[in-house]
């Protein structure tokens, strides 16, 4: 520890501290321009200079980079220090009159105008070099540096050309204290509705505001450290040293007794119905996108806005998109009616828009669901029964100009109607998840006709699959809403627990066995077994089946020329008897 | 491959000065002409022509010194060669018309050592000038070159070497005057880091306008520098060395390069030097046209390939220099002194000079002086002796006004202080500094405000631009001085100039900025009246600031003496003069652009300037 | 039975996991299909020994169906491939006995393909009806038609 005096105040700081850091501790204010705690001090602006007396000698030093020494007497506002500071600020004011932090310091020093020649009254760059240092030390790209000498000095890329080393991280703009560097997006921004994340976002981030667990992850594609080897600023600021760049995907082998498949669903891709115009018109959005839009942590903070930022005056909600449709999915996705009603209600709360709901049937099967529907009827949502045929912007009348026209047959009044709206929400159905087929193969799960996982029995075993120990839960087994999913999950878990709790597992009783006497050791069966449960015993000269491995398919039995191999409960004799019996009549 | 020393003995050695000054004055052509003439007379086996480094008496170039005998011929031309060869080298008769006659004397002085310019000089760093061909290592060795290296590497320990240098009192000749022995000790003690290794650097980025000391040393005796660096490397434990030479010195680079190759061939440089197991080699690094790269931290940045701008110190190069390793940077002249100290001992060296400044210093004597050139004098010699005894006084008998020492970082010393002994402390006390050794003499026709403006324009141009006070401050001061010399100065300007100068001195980051205000401060201190004249009466006392001059023609002188010769009117570029032959000519002030040509061309002194 | 349309007697060997469940599905879905098929459950279509097929024909079946999981979906990995091989070879052999190829059929019915099973049964039944009875034991087999 080092003892020193700052403006008459005695303080003690660590040996490695700079005078600036010590001043902060002593609550003495020293203005700075080119200093930033995260990059190496540059000592270029000379605004932070203070007068230091040590061992009888008094000198001006820059406080940002000068280390403290025992017995230093620091005067932050001595006459000498102030003279230098004021003149330097006054000269800088002539160089960059429009730099706000500089103007602020000038104001605090009582400098009203500059006596020196002003070249450009709009200039903001104070040549502090923070952008250059950030690009070199934090980002590791070194795409910009100073060029020219003396008063011609400025920040530039090599030869003023767009630099290949620049990775577009905009750190230079971030660190620039005066806003002299701006970044613009040259290629235009995507419409907010199409994005699930409103970018740009930081490379280290929590997946969403309501993520579980609420822990950040590093997006390797965007992270500067993985591009240039530098930065690591997140690790620097983390108190708990929780950032680990070496963490990699690991493959773990887990031995488990039961598996619950809960691989979820994916929304129907509305692009498959070109007539609905999704992807062509920015204001036609899917239910998932509307959920995001309306969420308080979403891109608009929960406001319902169109792509141009305005509130819609009329909104249409279209049911059964991709469901109940022999061209796409024949099944009903179960949840869309209810969430559409929810949307209608939210739209009523958040906007003054006229809400149209285009339904085929209203499926309100659950607790309070029908009542909620009635509430919506009272709230003034306009329900039109009919499957929407198309949505486009081809206006036929003046009233339809600039609107999205929803064309539908209103089956209750028997006419084809054109409803102009500003925004259309497609209630997309549910489909199995993207990797559904891979999972099915991996776990040997059959799928039902609607392509969701097949349960062992629709009434009596809704959470079990045909394979013992593998259970199904949630929408991977079929479209369902949250209460049903939770119930099914609970059931799957208790089945799994029951299995584990039992302490023992029932083995397959229908394994095959080989009669020693009859076996000739021809070994035909050995190669046939898919589970390699048959081995040839050289000593005995016969083939032997491992009971634990045998699954009971019976292939070896069918192939055995001597009938030595027989499947329990499905012996040849038994089946022969069955055949006889079955053809008695 | 270095040529082996010839066993041949010549009757005469013709030492032709081949320093950049004389070379640009066709001394190579003179050398060729001499060789041709000698061959013509069949004297090739008796007379040899040797190109040497700068002799020092640049005013009188091209120079030829005939050995033995030290006969000094000056201001030769190619057409003079046949006569000279025939007369002196064939017939043995000295040719007095090519000899040097001092200003007050009537008779020429044939022998070099008798010439006042040379008499008071003591040559240590320049000991071999004019005596050896710098491109032949054998000639350097013949004059005790590398003798100190052998002694240092085989008979002395590193500590002993450092002690010797410390006791000698040698101080850095680059300008700051830091005790060399102490610097070496600091580097030697510095902990090796970053993978080990220490560096030696020779600062040859001589940037002061008018300074050519280092250039001359490198052109005349590069081996002295190399030898000094190897000894230094041994003392501090360095593994590699760099000579940073400014790119504008092609001849120095060439000769140094040849010298390095020859030294390596002889095993005096490289791995296992002289079989002692000591490895050290030197690389040449060329500058790229930045004065600021003479500052040690900017120099190191330049060697490392980074932007050539200084960085704050501490850490000092002795702790953390090139690539973060301990580095010893010394000036060319400092290195050139080292071998002599080792050879003749610290006590001998400390016997020359003053209490605080030991040894000699090389100065480039330029400006309003009769004997422009390069001199090496013992510390403590007075300014008067240099200007009058060695320099031959002010041309045209004009009055001495001031001398600027230390280049753009230094200050001017007025005539009142002409008896000041030259040493580090006394010059600093007077407001100036030793600097690298530039000495610009000024007479009554020099405007001190203009001098300050000139030096400021240099430092402003060369400022790297990193720190606010130097970048903006030199411009601010320059603007004010320009206004003053244009007659647009105000009373507040002097106060502002003073404040700026002190503030910049206090707050600049490196030596360039910190010393840039010195010319302003010293001229304000000693010649404030000139500033006031420019501001209050809008007049330049020395008539240098042309915008302030008023040119008139004395009608009487014009008619009576000049008879209206009309020369001025014919030369006036702006048709401001009217008049006819035999009539008094008149200058129209409205049209006069104050170029001063009429003043210059009038043979009768009829044009007056006020 | 004597007069009127000939009702084929079909035996089907259905694998437990796919085809049997598919057939069950057809049932629970109340699908209507020809009742002519008599089902024997095996764990895997690979269990079906050619002898079973021959036995079935000997006992009076007019047609035999083996139904298993779709290739790649076999619960026991490869059993259905073996069934496929056996079916090919056996078909050739049966032809030499004078039994038409059409009487011995191999199908892939998955657990969700109740409709397919219905289709297969109906189609098979009609096909065999057109072919007519096999009458393997015309000349004194162990069981004659109609006898218990």
CATH topology of the largest domain in chain B: Rossmann fold
Strand content of chain C: 15-25%
Give the oligomeric state.
heterotrimer
Total of domains of chain B: 5
> CATH class of the largest domain in chain B, anyone?
Alpha Beta
User: What would the average pLDDT of chain C be, to the nearest integer?
Assistant: 88
Structural description of this entry:
The complex is a heterotrimer of chains A (585), B (610) and C (148). Chain A has 585 residues and is an alpha/beta fold. In chain A, 24% of the residues lie in helices and 18% in strands. In chain A, the strands form 9 sheets. Chain A has a 5-stranded mixed beta sheet, sandwiched between helices. In chain A, helix 10 links the parallel strand 14 and strand 15. With 610 residues, chain B is of the alpha/beta class. Helices cover 39% and strands 13% of the residues of chain B. Chain B contains 25 helices and 17 strands. A 5-stranded mixed beta sheet of chain B has the order 10-9-13-11-12. A 4-stranded mixed beta sheet of chain B has the order 2-1-3-4, covered by helices on one side. In chain B, strands 7-6-5-8 form a 4-stranded parallel beta sheet, with helices on both faces. In chain B, a hairpin with a 5-residue loop joins strand 9 (360-367) and strand 10. In chain B, helix 6 packs across helix 13 (332-344) and helix 17 (448-462) packs antiparallel against helix 21. Chain C has 148 residues and is of the alpha/beta class. Chain C has a single domain (11-131), classed as Rossmann fold. Chain C has 4 helices and 4 strands, in the order βαβαβαβα. Chain C has a 4-stranded parallel beta sheet, with helices on both faces. The longest helix of chain C has 19 residues, at 79-97. Chain C is globular. Chains in contact: A-B, A-C. The A-C interface holds A 441, 444, 446-449, 454, 458, 466, 510, 528, 530-531, 551-555, 557-559, 567, 570, 572, 575-576, 578-580, 582-584 and C 9, 11, 17-18, 21, 28, 38, 40, 42-44, 46-52, 55-56, 59-61, 72-73, 75-79, 82, 86, 110-113, 143, 148.
